[in-house]
């Protein structure tokens, strides 16, 4: 009696597994045709043109999974030797550094890449390459703040800005990477004093993203904010009247122009160690450095192409002209990120 | 198959002088073990050395995480009890204008994921949003000259979660109230209790177990929430797990923190069971007569029941609709229809799988009176309180190893190189959903199974029905509504699920939740509104079915009480 029930239960389980495995072969990405499997943390409106450009050029079909930066990283590690992923693209150099430390990238020696991507935007051993750059800018209320008073990141710790600064949480990579750069330039003790000063000047507990900080400056909740430049450029390019109004009231500036230059981070990636289609992966990475791809990749998020001299169809970005950026090796920034988080926790920057 | 189970039986129990658990027990134990395995993979971290992360966390942020989590739990518990119990009591004990509609509409907030509600309300209520803008325009006040409640705060998160989760309490409390008998109520009336006294001293204590079970579910969801608290920058324990893992790059410490969370949940559930004890109230099946409320009282009851629906469903849905309609970037197209199809496929497979596994476990727990089987079931539902991303890691690590071993084995045997069979397909993802949402299906199915009394089994057996036929001819018809409810609830939960889907889906396989999150993460809230709205609309379909069942059970309540909703295992 009992065994008949168990028999039917087993049958049910078998049916479930049959059902599930029927879905297995759909999209598992290991067909023999010419394909390249991409894990990417980027997701922008120009994606279609960007990806189909590669397929048109090489005849290689692209499979992709867009996901959270860290979740994709964990997934690649878990999949191990059998991972179908060929290329991993992510944002923030600390993540690239951590991926390299975990040994998931394969070094790539490419004359083309060495020529086109500036040295401080790539790993010295060719594990990862930066393909576009984003700048951490200072946004300010132009009715209340004179740009000269916030021309350097260091000035954000000035006691005169008590309750005037808005920023997102310290644990966000954009802030961590800025804090890391302060540690590298000023030393840990001075950087801690700086972070303590910034934390003391916050107008409200950190919340929301960078756009929310810009909006807070617009309505007057604070008069200074830290933001990545592309959130502001996105508002500049918006047709919505409320976004236009914000751009009128809130301006941005490139910090530290008279010394080391504005803090820069990158988005980039590399070929994975266990890539089943290494040739296609190398082609894709090199495609990323081509004029056509650079323009699309950077423009999708209003970033600057890593390759010099690329013409962007982005009048708002071009309006900014030339400015000085921090030439700190990005590889060293990644290494410092853990220390930056601990420092922020110590001074109570939430 | 039979020889396999026989072999397993003889190996695992036959020779060890343990109580015989039979084939069904063995299968259920294996299933439970599969569901518990990822949780075990997380717990395993406590045996690994962690870097200095712990010392750092304890000396800086951990006390705050614990305090915040505790406060959030208290506030959400208060919120869901207030919304859920009060409305359930009003719609069962009274008749007032609009009651029929409100009775089923009260589950609608379930269609909106808490994180989506958070996006919508933030856009609406923040300093730069339309509400405060209007306020400034009308009053002429300047920013910082007036006080306005901050939505992105711990109380704000508690409000969002309360609206999103009170339907659990509502469903269970309503079932409990429907099951109460008229006699105890009339006795209280004779003893001189007024309407409030009857509620407070008779109905509420009698419904206590159902309410506590609903609150337990809501609190487990609260503990697992990351989307809402991270958007509001409220540092809870789960936020701490993410910080240890992602900012500090210490997955071991993250696993250890997650284990602390699990221990807490286990204690909470044990407390719930102890509190319930042997309390089983039987009653004759004459439900409370509904008292008619007219005039101001009727309007008041209407307003009280309508408030959670307006605030938890109508308002956020309207905000999303406005955002979706006014944004020039929003695009309908083939991409959106692909997202809808993928979402349906995943939620459908997961719902069916969860119900089958839940029935297997519940059935085994009923027929095999073994403490081992009971304990395994108890562990199998723990995944409900784990953040989806933690489950994803717990699954990806062991399954990735298994996949690699499988590939090596297939290559050795057949000389064919395959790709990732488990983690490269939806299999791993459905597995994750099972680990995460089995509690919902299991508790619903088990509640349905408790309505099949042992005497029914005896009667079936004396008529010569085999256990298998008893299942099909006696149990299934009685349990049909519970099984349907379980499937619908899991469907809705998977539809809204984000972190595991995000981490584990196969190539070229995006869902609505993934799309909404991708856009919101990139601070394009207006563009995220369309996929978010579609989640709400799709979730409405099963909820309307569920609601019809509720209306149906309400009609039948005079003859038979149908348990709609969930019940923690008894």
| CATH superfamily caption of the largest domain in chain A | Periplasmic binding protein-like II
Low-pLDDT regions of chain B: 1-18, 558-570
* Major sheet description of chain B: 2 strands, parallel
Major β-sheet profile of chain A? 9 strands, mixed
Strand share of the residues of chain A? 5-15%
The CATH class of the largest domain in chain A is: Alpha Beta
Let me know the number of strands of chain B. Answer: 2
* SS field, number of helical segments of chain A: 14
CATH top level of the largest domain in chain B is: Mainly Alpha
Cα shape of chain B: globular
- Termini distance of chain B? 32 Å
Q: Could you spell the SSE succession of chain A in H and E letters?
A: HEHEHEHHEEHHHEHHEEHHEHH
Number of domains of chain B: 2
**Helix amount of chain A, in percent?**
40-55%
Give the CATH H-level superfamily of the largest domain in chain B: MetI-like
Number of domains of chain A: 2
Q: Using the 3D structure, state the CATH architecture of the largest domain in chain B.
A: Orthogonal Bundle
Examine the coordinates and then state which fold CATH places here, giving the name of the CATH topology of the largest domain in chain B. MetI-like fold
**Number of DSSP-assigned strands of chain A:** 9
Quick structural summary:
The complex is a heterodimer of chains A (350) and B (570). Chain A has helices at 2-22, 47-58, 69-79, 93-101, 111-116, 173-186, 188-201, 210-219, 229-237, 241-249, 278-288, 291-299, 315-319, 330-347, and strands at 35-40, 61-66, 87-91, 129-141, 165-166, 224-228, 250-253, 264-271, 304-305.
Structure in words:
The complex is a heterodimer of chains A (350) and B (570). Chain A has 350 residues and is α/β, with parallel strands linked by helices. Chain A has 14 helices and 9 strands. In chain A, helix 2 packs antiparallel against helix 12. Chain A folds into 2 domains: 32-133 and 265-311, Periplasmic binding protein-like II (D-Maltodextrin-Binding Protein, domain 2); 134-263 and 326-347, D-Maltodextrin-Binding Protein, domain 2. With 570 residues, chain B is an all-alpha fold. Chain B folds into 2 domains: 22-42 and 54-61 and 330-555, MetI-like (MetI-like fold, Orthogonal Bundle), CATH 1.10.3720; 63-234 and 282-326, MetI-like (MetI-like fold), CATH 1.10.3720.10. A two-stranded parallel ribbon of chain B has the order 1-2. In chain B, helix 4 crosses helix 10 (195-224) and helix 18 (426-450) crosses helix 20 (467-496). The longest helix of chain B has 34 residues, at 334-367. At the A-B interface, helix 1, strand 2, helix 3, helix 8 and helix 14 of A face helix 1, helix 2, helix 12, helix 15 and helix 17 of B.
